[in-house]
Design brief:
- The chain is mostly beta strands and 116 residues long.
- It contains no helices and eleven strands.
- Strands 2, 4, 5, 6, 9, 10 and 11 form a seven-stranded mixed β-sheet that branches. A four-stranded antiparallel β-sheet has the order 1-3-8-7, with no helix packed on it.
- A hairpin with a 6-residue loop joins strand 4 and strand 5.
- The relative contact order is 0.32.
Length: 116
């Protein structure tokens, strides 16, 4: 099993920045891709950004140019640097890890609130 713990969420004014972190523990050797998703009440969880073990990244169109995902494979941490935040970025952000065995692991989420 893999355990994921997010941190770094909070309240920020529009135009501000936040950096999320997600620390993985357990069978971290099995982790392949990692990513960040977000979900608003009553809506489906959506991909924000993803990164492969080798560092290839993918972003949703709504965050391209504003958010940057990175990972430290030694410390088993994935980061999401969020700049120029907008009110519509307000959501609960979840860390995800996909194992080489096809399993999906999730953190409990961290709230990001951006004032308009």
């Amino acid at each position: 099993q893999v355990q994921l713990v997010e941190s770094g969420g909070g309240f920020v004014q529009a135009g501000g920045s936040l950096k999320l972190s997600c620390a993985a523990s357990g069978k971290t050797f099995s982790i392949n891709d990692m990513g960040w998703y977000r979900q608003a009440p009553g809506k489906q969880r959506e991909l924000v950004a993803a990164i492969t073990r080798l560092g290839r990244t993918d972003y949703s169109e709504s965050v391209k140019g504003r958010f940057t995902i990175s990972r430290d494979n030694v410390k088993n941490i994935v980061y999401l640097q969020m700049n120029n935040l907008k009110h519509e970025d307000t959501d609960v952000y979840y860390c995800n890890a996909k194992s080489i065995y096809g399993q999906d692991f999730w953190g409990l989420g961290t709230q990001v609130t951006v004032s308009s």
